[in-house]
Amino acid sequence: MREIINTPDAPQPIGPYNQAILVKDMLYISGQIAINPETGELETKDLRDETHRVMNNLKAVLKAAGMSLQNVVKTSIFISDMHNFSIINEVYATYFDGSTAPARETVEVANLPKFVNVEISAIAIK
């Protein structure tokens, strides 16, 4: 049995997908980009702010499923320029304790939706 998770506190999907799917105790969160859910506008002028927006969007989806960042066991980070890794990683590190941080990979890609600089997806477990 799977449950679709959607919240107005995170950006609405811009394609044929849902914000997250809960299967038993596993939550699969679609990639989040820096869309402000209140305005629908992208927040990409400053990479630190962009990364914070992405992380806050992830937090909103987790909250809608009754979870928090502490439940995250895996993230996937997609970035448009590996030269930006240190800035993105610096912001990302403020959301997770290093000793209990989830597994992750970081991949440079040619382009991302709406030509943003960073997209992060996650898997969480209750």
UniProtKB/TrEMBL annotation:
<comment type="similarity">
    <text>Belongs to the RutC family.</text>
</comment>
<protein>
    <submittedName>
        <fullName>RidA family protein</fullName>
    </submittedName>
</protein>
<dbReference type="InterPro" id="IPR006056">
    <property type="entry name" value="RidA"/>
</dbReference>
<dbReference type="InterPro" id="IPR006175">
    <property type="entry name" value="YjgF/YER057c/UK114"/>
</dbReference>
<dbReference type="Pfam" id="PF01042">
    <property type="entry name" value="Ribonuc_L-PSP"/>
</dbReference>
<dbReference type="InterPro" id="IPR035959">
    <property type="entry name" value="RutC-like_sf"/>
</dbReference>
